[in-house]
Specification:
heterodimer; A: 323 residues; alpha/beta; eight-stranded mixed sheet; five-stranded parallel sheet; 9 helices; 15 strands; 36% helix; B: 370 residues; seven-stranded mixed sheet; six-stranded parallel sheet; 23% strand
Chain lengths: 323, 370
C-alpha cells in the first residue's frame, strides 16, 4: 500500500482520486490547499509545509503539481522528510533548479520521478512499443501538435509557470527526445501571441544526430473546450500516426454533426501512477526520468533563446549555444 | 496569337510530356481547352520523343519535332508544359514569348533564376500562367470556404503534412558496398511505369524541390501571406538514390510569414509501407477564433478485395472536380484579364522558399527568402 498526498492542483486531480485505490492500494491520503478533489483523510487542507509539520506520517509519497516556481522548495521539503516525489509537469522553473532538486533527492535516497504524463498516453505507448519492436527502424521525423484552451490561475503567469516553452513544450520536447533516444543537437523556435511577453503559440524545431528532426507545435489559444493532439513518427522502416482526428465519433443533433473524441478513460494516469508505485516498491533507478526532465528544460531554455533572438542553437559540451 | 474571347475554345500545344501525363489529361477535362498538337525540340533524345509520341497517339493529334513550327502552324493559344524539370523554364518562356498562355507542371524550375525568367516573360508578354496545383481539391475548397466564412477567425498558423507513401528504388543502405551511384535520370525514367517520376530530369532533386510547391501553395492560398524566413532540416533517410546524390527525401520546414503568421511543413517520400493510402496529407489551421484539421484526400472510399496487392491503395479519392476547376480558373483569368490561382510570381516565390529551406537544411541556420 502506498499513501499519496496530492500537493497543489492539476487537471488530473479527479483521475488521481479515482485511480489511487487501484494503483496504490489506498485512497489519496492527504491533499493540500490547492488540490481540488475530495479526500478520505480527516486532515484539513493545509499548505504542504503545514502538512509535513503536522502529519509527517500520514503519507508515503507526494504528487507535486504546485506552481512551477515553488516546486524547488516543495521537492526539497519532501526529500528532507523522506517522501518519494512524482512531479507533474516540468521539474522546475529552470534546468539549473531541476538539477539541484535532483541532487537533493538523490542525497535523501528517495524516488524522484518526472511526471512525463504524455509518455503514458495509450497512443504514445503504442508508438514507443512499435519502435521497441523494431517496426519503425531508425526514426527520421517526429511531428506533434497540441492545441488547448488558455490556462488559468498561476499557469497563465509566465513568471510562475515558465511560459509556453517551459510549462507546455517541455512535455513535447521530452517525447521527441525519448523517441530519438537522445538529446537534439539543434534547436530553433518561434513564438507568437498578442502579448510578446506571453506567447500563446509556439513551434519548436529540433534536429537530432543522423539527420533526425522533430517539429513540435503547441498553442494555448483555442476557444474554451476540448483540445486537439496528434503525434507522428516516420521511421526508416515504418510510420505511426496518432491523431485525435482518427478517434472522433460523430454526434447528430441537428445542424452540422459534432465530432466527439473517444475517451481512453483513466488509462494515462493509471499507467503513470503504476510506474511511480512500481519504482517506489522495487527501488528502481529513476535517474533516467529525472535526466530526461532536466534535458527537456535545457532544450526549452534553448528554445526561449532561439525565439527571442531568431537564431538557432547548437548543443555543445557546455549546453545549448546560439549560432 | 492569344485569344481571350468568351466562349472560345483554346487550342493547346502540349510542349513535351516526358513524365506524368496528368497535366494534359487534366486540361482536357475542360471543354474550352483542346489539345491540337504535341511538340518538342528535334534534338531531344529518343526516349523523350517516344513519350511525346505516345500521348499524341492517345489524343489522336500530331507530334511535331519543332516547337516553334508547331506553335506557328497549329494556331494555338495555350501551351501545356511538362518536360524534364530543368527544361520547364525554357519551354514556358518560349511559349510566353510566342504569346501563349501557359499551364506548367511542377516544379516551376530547378533554379530560382529560371523562375525569374518565367515571371519576366509572362509579365512582358501579358499572358496568363498557371502552375499545376492541388488547391482545387475538395478538402482544400472546404478549408477555404470555412476560412472565408470566418469560422475560425483570422489565420495564425498553418501546418501541412505532405508525405508520399511511394518507394524510390533501393532503400538506403541496400546498395552493395562500392556500388556506383544510382543514375538519377535512368532511375526516374524507369519510375515512369508507376507514376513516381515527378523528379525526372538530369538534375537530381529532393522532395522539397519536386513536391514542395503543392503544400506551400496550400499555405500561401490559406494565409494570403508571403514566406519571409525559413528554418529547415533535411535528410536522405529512406532511399539510396537520394543518399547517392545528397538530396532530401525527408524534410521539415518552419515558415515565418507576413503578418506574424507561422507555418510548418513536413514532407517526404517515405516509402510504400508507411501508409495505407497514398500518404498522410493533412492541413492544420489555427485561427484567432478556432482551428481546423483537414485531411486533403477526402472525400474517399476504402476498397478492399481478395487478391489486393500491397501496392494497391485501398483508399480512392472520389468526387470533386479539381482538374476542371483549375482549367476554369485559367479560362476565367484569360477572359477577364484576371489572375490565376497559382501564377508565375507566386510560383517563383514558392521556388525561392524551397531554395531557402534547402540552404537552411545545409547550414542549420534560418535563411531569409529572397
Amino acid at each position: 500500500m502506498t499513501r499519496l498526498a496530492l500537493v497543489g492542483s492539476g487537471p488530473d486531480d479527479e483521475a488521481y482520486a479515482r485511480i489511487a485505490p487501484r494503483a496504490c492500494g489506498a485512497p489519496i491520503a492527504a491533499v493540500t490547499d490547492g488540490a481540488e478533489v475530495a479526500s478520505n483523510s480527516a486532515i484539513a487542507r493545509p499548505t504542504f509545509g503545514e502538512l509535513l509539520d503536522t502529519h509527517p506520517d500520514a503519507f508515503d509519497a507526494a504528487i507535486i503539481q504546485t506552481p512551477t516556481d515553488e516546486r524547488a522548495s516543495h521537492i526539497e521539503a519532501a526529500a528532507t522528510a523522506g517522501k518519494h516525489v512524482l512531479v507533474k509537469g516540468p521539474l522546475g522553473r529552470s534546468a539549473g533548479a531541476a538539477r539541484e532538486m535532483a541532487e537533493a533527492c538523490a542525497n535523501a535516497d528517495i524516488v524522484l520521478m518526472s511526471g512525463q504524463i504524455d509518455r503514458y498516453r495509450p497512443e504514445v505507448s503504442a508508438v514507443r512499443a512499435s519502435m521497441d519492436a523494431g517496426q519503425m527502424g531508425q526514426p527520421g521525423l517526429v511531428r506533434s501538435h497540441r492545441w488547448q484552451s488558455p490556462p488559468t490561475g498561476w499557469r497563465l503567469d509566465p513568471d510562475r509557470s515558465g511560459g509556453i516553452f517551459i510549462h507546455e513544450l517541455t512535455r513535447d520536447i521530452d517525447i521527441a527526445a525519448w523517441l530519438f533516444d537522445g538529446p537534439p543537437d539543434t534547436v530553433f523556435a518561434v513564438a507568437r501571441g498578442s502579448d510578446p511577453d506571453r506567447p500563446d503559440a509556439a513551434v519548436v524545431h529540433l534536429g537530432f544526430p543522423d539527420g533526425g528532426m522533430a517539429v513540435l507545435d503547441v498553442t494555448t489559444a483555442l476557444p474554451q473546450g476540448e483540445g486537439y493532439w496528434s503525434l507522428q513518427l516516420i521511421g526508416a522502416d515504418g510510420a505511426v500516426y496518432a491523431d485525435d482526428q482518427h478517434n472522433m465519433q460523430l454526434l447528430y443533433a441537428g445542424g452540422s454533426p459534432a465530432a466527439r473524441l473517444t475517451s481512453s478513460g483513466d488509462a494515462t494516469v493509471l499507467s503513470q501512477l503504476e510506474a511511480f508505485v512500481s519504482a517506489m516498491n522495487s527501488g528502481a533507478d529513476t535517474s533516467g526520468s529525472v535526466a530526461a526532465g532536466v534535458l527537456a528544460l535545457e532544450v526549452a531554455e534553448a528554445a526561449v533563446a532561439s525565439a527571442a533572438s531568431g537564431r538557432s542553437a547548437g548543443r555543445t559540451e557546455d549546453g545549448y549555444v546560439l549560432v | 496569337m492569344s485569344l481571350s474571347r468568351d466562349s472560345s475554345v483554346f487550342r493547346v500545344a502540349v510542349l513535351s510530356v516526358v513524365k506524368h501525363d496528368y497535366v494534359p489529361l487534366g486540361l482536357i477535362t475542360h471543354p474550352r481547352f483542346k489539345p491540337v498538337v504535341v511538340a518538342d525540340d528535334a534534338e531531344q533524345p529518343e526516349w523523350v520523343h517516344e513519350r511525346n509520341q505516345k500521348l499524341a497517339n492517345e489524343l489522336n493529334i500530331p507530334y511535331v519535332r519543332d516547337v516553334e513550327a508547331a506553335i506557328r502552324d497549329y494556331d494555338v493559344q495555350v501551351a501545356c508544359v511538362s518536360p524534364e524539370a530543368e527544361r520547364h523554364a525554357d519551354l514556358s518562356v518560349r511559349a510566353a514569348d510566342a504569346g501563349l498562355h501557359v499551364v506548367q507542371d511542377k516544379p516551376m524550375s530547378t533554379l530560382v533564376s529560371e523562375c525569374d525568367r518565367i515571371v519576366e516573360a509572362v509579365e512582358r508578354n501579358g499572358v496568363k500562367f498557371l502552375m499545376w496545383n492541388r488547391d482545387m481539391l475538395p478538402a482544400m475548397l472546404h478549408a477555404r470556404r470555412n476560412l472565408q466564412s470566418g469560422a475560425i477567425g483570422d489565420v495564425r498558423a498553418v501546418h501541412v503534412d505532405f508525405y508520399f507513401a511511394k518507394d524510390a528504388g533501393p532503400r538506403r543502405g541496400e546498395s552493395p558496398a562500392g556500388a556506383p551511384k544510382i543514375d538519377w535520370l535512368e532511375a526516374l525514367k524507369a519510375a515512369h511505369v508507376d507514376g513516381s517520376d515527378g523528379g525526372v530530369g538530369h538534375a537530381p532533386m529532393g522532395e522539397l524541390q519536386i513536391e514542395g510547391i503543392y503544400p506551400l501553395s496550400h499555405v500561401g492560398l490559406l494565409t494570403g501571406a508571403r514566406v519571409q524566413r525559413v528554418f529547415a532540416r533535411t535528410a536522405s533517410h529512406f532511399h539510396q538514390r537520394n543518399v547517392d546524390h545528397g538530396i532530401d527525401d525527408l524534410a521539415s520546414v518552419t515558415l515565418e510569414m507576413e503578418h506574424g503568421i507561422v507555418g510548418t511543413l513536413c514532407i517526404g517520400r517515405i516509402g510504400r509501407a508507411k501508409h495505407d493510402n497514398d500518404g498522410e496529407i493533412k492541413v492544420r489551421i489555427l485561427g484567432t477564433a478556432g482551428a481546423m484539421v483537414i485531411d486533403e484526400p477526402r472525400p474517399a472510399v476504402r476498397v478492399f478485395y481478395r487478391g489486393r496487392t500491397a501496392g494497391d491503395s485501398p483508399a480512392a479519392r472520389v468526387g470533386g472536380d479539381a482538374d476542371w476547376l483549375l482549367m476554369e480558373n485559367l479560362a476565367q483569368a484569360i477572359d477577364t484579364d484576371g489572375d490565376t490561382i497559382l501564377n508565375a510570381r507566386v510560383g517563383r516565390d514558392i521556388a525561392a522558399t524551397v531554395q531557402a529551406a534547402i540552404d537552411s537544411g545545409r547550414t542549420g541556420r534560418p535563411v531569409e527568402v529572397s
